[in-house]
Design brief:
Elements (H helix, E strand, L loop, with lengths): L1 E6 L4 H12 L4 E8 L3 H11 L3 E4 L2 H7 L8 E4 L1 H9 L5 E4 L7 H9 L3 E4 L3 H17 L2 E4 L2 H10 L7 E8 L17 H4 L9 H9 L1 H13 L7 E5 L5 E7 L4 E5 L5 H8 L14 H4 L14 H10 L2 H19 L6 H13 L8 H20 L2
The chain binds NADP nicotinamide-adenine-dinucleotide phosphate.
The site of NADP nicotinamide-adenine-dinucleotide phosphate has 28 residues, from α1 and α9.
Length: 383
Amino acid sequence: MKYLTILGATGSIGGSAADVLLRHADAFSAYALVGHRNHQRMLELAYALHPRWVVMTDSAAAEQLKGRLPEGVQLEAGMDAAIAMATNPSVDMVLAAMVGSVGLPAALAAVRAGKRVGLANKECLVTAGRIFMQTARECGAEVVPVDSEHAAVHQCLAGRAHGLVSRVILTASGGPFRDRDPATMHAITPDEAVVHPNWNMGAKISVDSATMMNKALELIEARWLFDMPPEKLSAIIHPQSIVHGMVEYLDGSVLAQLAAPDMRGPIAYAIQADPHLTSDISMLDLAKHGRLDFQAVDEVRFPAMRLIKTVLAGHDSLAITLNAANEIANQAFRDRRIPFTDIVRVVEQALEAGEDVSVDALDDVWSRDHEIRCLTESLITNL
Ligand SMILES: NC(=O)c1ccc[n+]([C@@H]2O[C@H](COP(=O)([O-])OP(=O)(O)OC[C@H]3O[C@@H](n4cnc5c(N)ncnc54)[C@H](OP(=O)(O)O)[C@@H]3O)[C@@H](O)[C@H]2O)c1
């Protein structure tokens, strides 16, 4: 039996992971489920999965679970408890699926403890990719992507020499506003932005997909995950979300991974790649789809994809700025404090104001992250 800790168990990825675990209850079991505030969802998960531990990082949410968990399931509260669950010697694998850079300490602790880490929480690599992957190498931790695009690339790279790669290509659906008249984009509401045409995801990543900031974050994620120089990273619009990622080799051949858009596929792959776990995703019927379309990314419609070029060409501080400013601006849009088109505008202003310097220590990551969050709040106030 292998034991997993799921960080962000109460979210969308956490729900898909629970489904995969239940399908393979003979081989995998939840050691700990970690949520933040959604105690109602945690209660359902605790009864379904019977973990040894439940942790709510919000102590008021943990209070709500007292005396209500199934017999034998123990309760803890706070981020330190989450870190303890990610590093416990009984744990074989950690699924990092909190949202935002708040997930970095627990995911990094898992890496330091040498765990296999299934990484959905891309903000960890955007904020501290160099430190995260270096720690993984030093501590013998295996970091396996959960993002569907990176899981696809991981499969297309398997067993092939890194030096033979000419390009890594991430596909992007283009989100709900791929064909929307740019002149009306300022009027987009949070309710419209959180509805993705192909994927059912949490609110923050759905808005990131609508601005295409998600693809910008994923390019930085790919840079560290696959140790690829920025000039070998690219993105292409593929509205059907059937081809998830491609690797172009120096001989001109391109390997692609195709599957129905269902996160249970990449999660199952991250939990165990060899042999692949089944996940009950529907089988592809390409004849039924009939066609697969591709188009270049329109940087005027999606200015986040223009900004990412500057970020990838610069030092690590720019990625910290991009991520922190985006987390604040994305939330401000969902709180109806700024219009949709100001999300990327505010991020651009933060990038113009922030420094372009290398960041080698974790303390520096946190101080910059904090500084940029404050700066972005003041930019929003002064819009
Ligand atoms: N959803 C997808 O299909 C998908 C695909 C690829 C990658 N990802 C990535 O996976 C991560 C999770 O995405 P998601 O869609 O599952 O998000 P989500 O549905 O919003 O879930 C986020 C999870 O993080 C927890 N959380 C929120 N704030 C927290 C805090 N301050 N401290 C500790 N935990 C906190 C939430 O807890 P509560 O709900 O209990 O408050 C929840 O368990 C993101 O980084 C996203 O980019 C998601």
